Amino acid sequence: DAKTTQPTSMDCAEGRAANLPCNHSTISGNEYVYWYRQIHSQGPQYIIHGLKNNETNEMASLIITEDRKSSTLILPHATLRDTAVYYCIVRLLIYNQGGKLIFGQGTELSVKP
Amino acid sequence: GAGVSQSPSNKVTEKGKDVELRCDPISGHTALYWYRQSLGQGLEFLIYFQGNSAPDKSGLPSDRFSAERTGGSVSTLTIQRTQQEDSAVYLCASSGWTGGGRSTGELFFGEGSRLTVL
Q: Mean pLDDT across the stretch A30-34?
């Protein structure tokens, strides 16, 4: 499995954009980039995913570099409730809906008032 | 129910006993995953089922751990001769195509089963 590298922790001021980087230099051509987060004591929550194009949904934006070796998750207006561990994961998508998914250590994001 | 259901939510057992943890995935989901999370640690992959294919057991930590999925739906994770280091929250997730829109491959997680081995 391709591995990802993320900073261990980051701080962000409430109301500002949170930009979480991820390196995945060994990603293969058919592997997707997924982002999940885990708020304390809860199960992981899907945020967004992409293959090579930038993606946006109601939660966040995902910017993938042209060479696909890195990506950035953007929370446009961080709130205190966005404090969580954020996981960047690369995986194959099997039958368009499955595939082994391995969580790394993630980035602990602290949103401060 | 509409979500992934796990039982029991809490289990306290004595060292050396066997335990079974159950997962009811979302109806129609063909992929099922088991993870465990020890206190203050990240999620550790245990096993992954995809349809009728042989499961990926590469994350099971020892031969005391096993899992099966009957009829492509309910899954049971069994831990034999439990040890104190098995204490953790065991999380189950499922993913699949349930019709309509673009499938994201999103994993839907249950609330977990908290196992405490005394």
A: 91
